[in-house]
């Protein structure tokens, strides 16, 4: 039991490092960039609040678990913003390999039963094929959109993002898992880009 508890506490201490990983997206008030720990917490809250946007049969508890775990690999890899100058790296073979290695290390800190369970949830989120993961991925994509809208454009201004880029990089993923939510958000983004 002591070995198990030591492993669990070691993992939790390692997970605390996620709070030091800075993202490109700012807080809604634009005062500073958010960290990945804040992002994960906010996404879990998104899942709780927006659960009525999920397809029938989506298990919100599983979605929340995926969202809490999904960015832990950023402890080793860092945040790779989808719209940045390095955005081409987002989803690249190199980044995916680094994330898998990080998942091996981080989830490997846990006792095997928990490590396997958490790793499976992370893999499911990354694959974005199950209804739970599709909805989780939709929320992961929509939250930065809402942060950018609230902060006057945020990283869209910084990275020169166009409405077409937002639609192709973000909109299609949000619409896949939460079509009504994306229709609502799209009205806001269309107005924002039109006013520029």
Automatic annotation (TrEMBL):
Matches recorded under SUPFAM superfamilies: HD-domain/PDEase-like
Recorded superkingdom: Bacteria
GO MF, one example: 5'-deoxynucleotidase activity
UniProt-listed Pfam families: HD_3
Keyword Ribonucleoprotein set for record: no
Keyword Hydrolase: yes
Keywords, alphabetical: Hydrolase, Metal-binding
GO CC, any one term: cytoplasm
Domain spans labelled HD: 15-182
Name of the featured protein: HD domain-containing protein
Source organism (scientific name): Rubellimicrobium rubrum
């Amino acid at each position: 039991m002591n070995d198990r508890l030591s492993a669990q506490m070691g993992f939790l201490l390692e997970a605390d490092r996620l709070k030091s990983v800075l993202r490109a997206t700012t807080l809604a008030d634009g005062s500073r960039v958010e960290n990945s720990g804040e992002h994960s917490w906010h996404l879990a809250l998104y899942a709780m609040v927006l659960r009525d946007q999920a397809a029938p049969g989506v298990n919100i508890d599983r979605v929340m678990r995926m969202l809490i775990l999904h960015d832990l690999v950023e402890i080793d890899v860092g945040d790779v913003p989808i719209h940045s100058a390095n955005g081409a790296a987002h989803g690249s073979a190199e980044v995916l390999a680094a994330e898998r290695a990080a998942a091996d290390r981080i989830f490997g800190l846990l006792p095997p039963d928990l490590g396997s369970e958490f790793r499976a949830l992370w893999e499911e989120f990354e694959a974005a094929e199950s209804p739970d993961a599709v909805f989780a991925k939709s929320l992961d994509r929509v939250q930065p959109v809402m942060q950018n809208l609230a902060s006057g454009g945020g990283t869209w201004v910084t990275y020169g993002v166009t409405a077409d880029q937002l639609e192709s990089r973000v909109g299609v993923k949000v619409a896949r898992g939460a079509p009504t939510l994306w229709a609502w958000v799209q009205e806001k983004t269309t107005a924002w880009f039109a006013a520029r």
